[in-house]
Design goal:
The complex is a heterodimer of chains A (about 400) and B (about 70).
Chain A: H1 10-13, H2 19-23, H3 26-35, E1 38-41, E2 47-50, H4 53-61, E3 66-67, H5 94-101, H6 107-111, H7 114-128, E4 133-135, H8 136-141, H9 143-153, H10 160-171, H11 178-201, H12 207-213, H13 224-255, H14 257-265, H15 270-280, E5 285-290, E6 294-296, E7 299-301, E8 306-310, H16 311-314, H17 349-366, E9 370-372, E10 379-380, E11 388-390, E12 392-395
Parallel strand pairs in A: 2-8
Antiparallel strand pairs in A: 1-2, 3-5, 4-12, 5-8, 6-7, 9-12, 10-11
Helix pairs in contact in A: 7-9, 7-17, 9-13, 10-11, 10-13, 11-13, 13-17, 15-17
Chain B: E1 5-9, H1 19-23, E2 28-30, E3 36-38, E4 43-44, H2 49-58, E5 64-68
Antiparallel strand pairs in B: 1-4, 1-5, 2-3
Classes of the chains: A alpha+beta (about 400), B alpha+beta (about 70).
């Protein structure tokens, strides 16, 4: 995939789209962390990478020197034309934009969606269980979050394939090809503009209508670009992130029979197991843009550069997590940052947890024994959301 | 150690990860934005002390104070 020169010096020339990073980033992060709390590359028009939990936290909390107006590190840096509040908002605009969304995503609110998610999981399993094996990414994990968010937004679940295509174009191909990104954003905006028009004729009680009916602090309806931006955000942020988290959890369980049998024997461990999968296989790396000179961990940080805000690397910092490279499904102390830190904490974190829990529970009920297909190949996504995109699995124990 | 425990969620730090609510629902409640608050005056019954410490240890924002009175 990568058209960049292969990396030979990770400390001074890192590249998060290098195939080695895509395949197995953990030893790279360990190497960089041992070198410095912040490293820099000239690639991507200049970009820093904080490697420790502390450095990631400092940057997350510092909205004065680090802006969210760009949240993806790319090889091009055009003026950001399409804000998606609140993820691309800084204070003071951020808080009111986020507060419009938060009530729809509390644990109680997402609990109402749980029966539908359970049904989605079982409908998917029905399609392949008789086949003795499947690509669990392409046929299972990929479809759960997209159908759930469609259900929440009140748009047809059958349009899922379209959403998946846009997300691939925006989050993976778009890192290096601006025209693909722009086209996908325009198609997506056109789709949602149509949905908004439909609701102006026939109001509904879904999340799109909630946003249309929202009022800002002056009592005015949100502008159409604000509503469209937030809808794009919910679709983009809510899909391949959780798809990745479910896929990585299944990947771990496929290659770790002892954790699988323990989870089946002790279902009460599910909450700590889910938090541990979130920590060890955090899918989401965010970004910031340096807007004022400062220092992080003693390293000077200069405007004009981006920051790759790696929550996954922070979550592997052994100073905060003993045995950070071990997956311990009953880890008691696990204050991980998989959903970010500070004001931009993922608005969908409760939804993601519910989807992960239900997806793993239903899979284990129907397919308690499974393993990686030795004849297949696991393929991981490139870019800032990491998860298996191809996950060949055989059902039953090895025979 | 026979002191009583009290908990308090710092509203400037809480970002609504809801880990405390999931680990110790007897001690924490969430508001309509999903941010956590201690229930009542934050007094922790003896049998829930372990849960209070656990909630504190799992808060990513270090927003929970546990005070030994």
């Amino acid at each position: 995939m990568s058209n960049h020169a292969p990396v030979t010096d990770w400390v001074h020339d890192f590249d998060h789209t290098d195939p080695r990073w895509t395949e197995n980033p953990f030893p790279i992060w360990d190497e960089l962390r041992a070198e410095s709390p912040v490293v820099h590359t000239e690639r991507f028009l200049g970009c820093y990478l904080p490697t420790t939990f502390e450095a990631v936290k400092q940057i997350s909390y510092d909205t004065e020197h680090f802006s969210s107006r760009r949240v993806v590190v790319r090889t091009v840096r055009p003026e950001p034309p399409y804000p998606s509040p609140p993820i691309t908002s800084d204070p003071p605009e951020h808080k009111p934009a986020k507060q419009l969304l938060l009530p729809s995503f509390t644990p109680d609110a997402v609990k109402k969606l749980e029966p539908r998610v359970r049904a989605i999981c079982n409908e998917l399993i029905d399609e392949f269980i008789a086949e003795g094996g499947c690509d669990a990414a392409a046929r299972y994990s990929k479809h759960i979050p997209v159908r759930a968010i469609a259900h929440m937004l009140g748009i047809p679940e059958q349009d899922s394939e379209l959403f998946i295509k846009w997300i691939h174009e925006i989050l993976e191909l778009g890192i290096k090809d601006d025209s693909v990104l722009m086209r996908a954003v325009q198609e997506m905006s056109g789709y949602f503009a149509k949905q908004i028009e439909l609701r102006k004729q026939h109001p509904t009680d879904d999340l799109i209508s909630t946003l249309m009916n929202a009022r800002d602090k002056n009592g005015q309806p949100l502008s159409d670009p604000h509503v469209l931006g937030s809808l794009r955000l919910l679709l983009i942020a809510g899909i391949d992130t959780t798809w990745s988290a479910i896929g990585a959890s299944l990947w771990h369980l496929a290659k770790t029979p002892e954790d699988r049998s323990r989870l089946i024997a002790e279902p009460a461990l599910m909450p700590t197991a889910i938090e541990e999968f979130l920590r060890a296989y955090s899918p989401v790396t965010m970004a910031r843009e340096v807007i004022k000179e400062t220092a992080i961990g003693g390293c000077p940080v200069k405007p004009g550069n981006m920051v790759l805000l790696s929550f996954p690397a922070a979550n592997r910092d052994p100073k905060v997590f003993p045995d950070a490279d071990k997956v311990v499904i009953d880890r008691q102390q696990n204050p991980h940052a998989a959903f970010g830190l500070g004001i931009h904490r993922c608005v969908g974190s409760n939804l993601a947890r519910m989807e992960m829990t239900v997806a793993i529970e239903e899979w284990l009920k129907r397919i308690p024994d499974f393993r990686l297909d030795p004849a297949g190949k696991v393929a991981w996504s490139e870019g800032t959301v990491r998860g298996p995109r191809q996950l060949p699995i055989l059902f039953g124990t090895a025979g | 150690m026979s002191g009583k425990l009290k908990i308090h969620v710092d509203q400037d730090k809480c970002q609504g990860h809801a880990r405390c609510k999931s680990l110790a629902p007897e001690l924490f409640e969430l508001d309509k934005f999903g941010n956590a608050h201690e229930i009542g005056d934050g007094s922790v019954p003896k049998e829930l002390e372990d849960k209070a410490w656990l909630a504190q240890a799992n808060c990513p924002e270090i927003a929970i104070e546990v005070i030994e009175e």
